Amino acid sequence: MRMDDMRRSDNVEDRRGRSLRRTGAGVGVGTLLVVVVAYFMGADPATLLGMLESAAPPAVSDSAPAAPPPAGDPQADFVRAVLGETEDVWTAVFRENGAQGYPPPTLVLYSGSVESACGLSGAAAGPFYCPGDQRLYIDLDFFNELEQRFGAPGDFARAYVVAHEVGHHVQDLVGTTEVVQQARRRSSPEVANRTLVKLELQADCYAGIWANRAERAHRIMETGDLEEALGAAAAVGDDTLQRHAQGHVVPESFTHGSAEQRARWFRRGFEGGRLDDCDTFNAASL
């Protein structure tokens, strides 16, 4: 992935120096591994960790103020570059579709655990977007997990993760998230899950739009980058994760989509580069 021409975003908040810590025993490693799998199956990481930690000693937090990432931090520089490119891409897309502007999200770097408007979340829950404060939250150690545990190496695999979460921000801005939340509250669990799958696949497609537009603007992609993104999308498919976690697949419990669906919708956004290509809610099939 070529980053030289990518603008670095200033909308990055570094909370790694004030991550929440616990005095005494806390949630064990084994429990956290359960949470990370549950996250990719659609469970709310804030709720899960809140329940798991209810019996633990109170959390204490470092009082150091949040600040921009320090210079010379290559991983922070990477996410700043990807975030800056998403800002440029979505500003252009919003303008093309008659919107007055694109309010970008803030990306929060943290380590260990973090408080958001969505509650307390731990690093094992994976990256997430919180509509309540319009922030993306990422523990950069997740990128190691993506490569080593989920078998999705490469810088474009990591870029896909950021772009997917930005896709959720776009959904929040245009009102899709609220519509889906209301529909889920009125539906049976099975229907609610299918609606959530559509939301997640659309975010994958939006990540593909980002890749398409960024490549056209700055030629950021190198040989193998598309395959890295597709591999990452497939690695976090519900069927892949369920097979690893429990040895069998339960399609009716899917909340993010299968490996094939996630990769296919990313590719669809990448090949078309238009919002109309990502209407998962009215698609004849997913």
Topology overview:
Blueprint: E1 12-14, E2 20-22, H1 29-40, H2 45-52, E3 59-61, H3 74-96, E4 106-109, E5 113-116, E6 119-122, E7 128-130, E8 135-138, H4 142-148, H5 155-174, H6 176-185, H7 189-218, H8 225-235, H9 238-246, H10 259-272
Parallel strand pairs: 1-4, 4-8
Antiparallel strand pairs: 2-3, 5-6, 7-8
Structure description:
It is a single chain. The protein has 10 helices and 8 strands. It has 286 residues and is an alpha/beta fold. It has one domain (12-282). Mean pLDDT is 84; it is low at 21-41 and 45-64.
Quickly list its features.
alpha/beta; two-stranded antiparallel sheet
Overall shape: it is globular
How many β-strands, per DSSP? 8
Distance N terminus to C terminus?
29 Å
Overall pLDDT metric: 84
The helix-strand sequence is EEHHEHEEEEEHHHHHHH
Structural class: alpha/beta
Number of helices: 10
Stretches with pLDDT under 50, minimum 5 residues: 21-41, 45-64
Q: Could you describe the largest sheet, including whether it forms a barrel?
A: 4 strands, mixed
Strand order of the largest sheet: 1-4-8-7
Percent helix among the residues? 40-55%
Compute the CA-based radius of gyration.
Answer: 18 Å
Overall tally of domains? 1
Beta content: 5-15%
